[in-house]
Amino acid sequence: MKYHLLAILPGLTLAGSFPDDDGIAEDTPGIWASSAAVDRGPVDATVPDGATTSHGSPADAIGASDASDDPTVGVVSLGDGGAATLRLSVPVADGSGADLAVFENGFSSAFLELAHVEVSSDGIHFVRFPSISQTQTDTQIGTFAFNGIDPTDLHNLAGKYEAGIGTPFDLAELRGVDPRLDVSHVTHVRVIDVVGSIDPNLGTTDSLGNPINDPFKTNFATGGFDLDAVGAMQAAPTNLPAWTTHHFPTGGATGDEEDPDGDRIPNLLEYATAGDPVHPSGPPLQFAYSGPSPQLTWRKANNRTGVTLILQGSSNLVDWTDLASSTDSAATSGLILGVAVSETAQDSLVTASVTANYTFFRLKAER
Asked: What percent of the chain has pLDDT over 70?
């Protein structure tokens, strides 16, 4: 974050710390969400078991932005604390500048309904963009207050702009934050309504722990954040040369077996499992028991070509047997009796239950 020292002059109204001219026009993204699941919140957070919002449907958040300042057009209302989880049509990557844009149907720059944004590389583990609200927290912004929020007081909070202009998010801010997130292979985006009450027992806070003040209550069918669309600008690399250039633009330890971040996962395996080769990633192979049988789970980057992933088993750490494998985006297949494989189509998570007699397991990538 950049900090600025401002001289306070008599009669001068100072803007906040953040730009209000970095919005993304609705014709800019080339990639949009292809599916959405919505968990609506109540119309009134003070009555958590009361009525939930009812306007729109998950389908209204799919595809290109089409909202207007007419609240009845093209949006799904999330309600207080409600959330929408969207799968992008193709995995996307960190590029130059903003990478994602979240669109709401705001009709005034002074009446803004806000939301947190999180991203995931597997649809399971989500990482939140660090948000900041510098809006005053002494007086609650009311239901129909049209002068309560200055967009320059907001950072990484969706809903900062009016209909047709998306709030930008830069994946570079999350690089290396969580070993389970690869910012060159983001598959899902989650949008979570901010409960704008300054009551600490009800309201949402920013990444610094400050209350986020936005219109409250919004106790009607269209209450809370009205999600129009989520767009992205750059598709994730689909072949090894493009992936290598993306992560190593000036060269370096780019060999298949090299491990520049020291996480004991070689580059080719990082490529195949949506890992980050320059920041430590979590273990690509997870182990658990399902009854008496070991169960192995791993993620494969379904959009990437030129690589084969192989699950191997051993009883002595010397002799290894191929148990299951996949090449490129083809489904993973069990290779011997005693290995049952399942795979989620959307999230590219592979699970192998092994009843064959093996004690040790490893995941291998090869060209």
From this structure: 93
Over residues 145-169, the pLDDT tens digits come to: 777 799 999 999 999 999 999 999 9
Q: What is the CATH number of the domain that holds 272?
A: 2.60.40
pLDDT at residue 148, as a whole number: 79
Nearest in space to 24 (alpha carbons), one of 165, 235, 227, 226? 165
What range defines the domain where residue 79 resides?
1-236
Could you write out the DSSP letters of every residue in 317-349?
Answer: SSSEEEEEEEETTSPPEE-STTEEEEE-TTT-E
Q: Of the residues 236, 270, 288, which one is the last residue of a structural domain?
A: 236
Quick one: average pLDDT of 177-185?
92
* Among 209, 236, 263, residue at a domain's last position: 236
Q: What spatial distance separates the first Cα and last Cα of the chain, rounded to whole Å?
A: 41
Residue with tokens 């990082």: 270
Model confidence pLDDT, tens digit, residues 48-104: 999 999 999 999 999 999 977 666 678 999 999 999 999 999 999 999 999 999 999
Same domain? 147 vs 262: no
- List Cα–Cα distances, 212 to 159, 169, 259, 317, in angstroms: 13, 18, 42, 54
- Dihedral angle computed from the Cα positions of residues 130, 131, 132 and 136, in that order, rounded to the nearest 10 degrees: -150
Question: What is d(CA 300, CA 294) in angstroms, rounded to the nearest whole number?
Answer: 20
164: left (phi over 0), alpha (psi -120 to 50) or beta: left
The pLDDT value recorded for residue 346 is: 60
Whole-prediction pTM value? 0.89
Strand 293-299 to 308-314 pairing: unpaired
Convert 134-167 to b/e letters by CB count within 10 Å (16 or more is b).
bbebeebbeeebeebbbbbbbbbbbbbbbbbbbb
Alpha carbon distance 367, 350 (integer Å):
20
What token pair was written down for 215?
């219109």
